[in-house]
Amino acid sequence: MFPVIQLGPLVIQTPGLVLLLGFWAGMEFAERHAVQRNIPEGKAYNLIWVSLIAGLLGARLG
């Protein structure tokens, strides 16, 4: 795997790109399931953000 993707003057770090894509996919998945289960949109987004912060903190502390 390439550590960076260079598009002219723009340099993209691949680990950051993979993290961003994973977060986006997780948000889409959670949003669809929240709609199916009649969970209010605000509560679903709050849960997603709290989960993201807790996951990042756990990864840094672990």
UniProtKB/TrEMBL annotation:
GO terms for molecular function: phosphatidylglycerol-prolipoprotein diacylglyceryl transferase activity. GO terms for cellular component: plasma membrane. One of its GO terms (biological process) is lipoprotein biosynthetic process. The chain crosses the membrane at residues 6-24. It comes from the Bacteria. Keywords: Membrane, Transmembrane, Transmembrane helix. It holds the Pfam family LGT. This is Prolipoprotein diacylglyceryl transferase. It comes from Anaerolinea thermolimosa. The lineage of its organism: Bacteria, Bacillati, Chloroflexota, Anaerolineae, Anaerolineales.
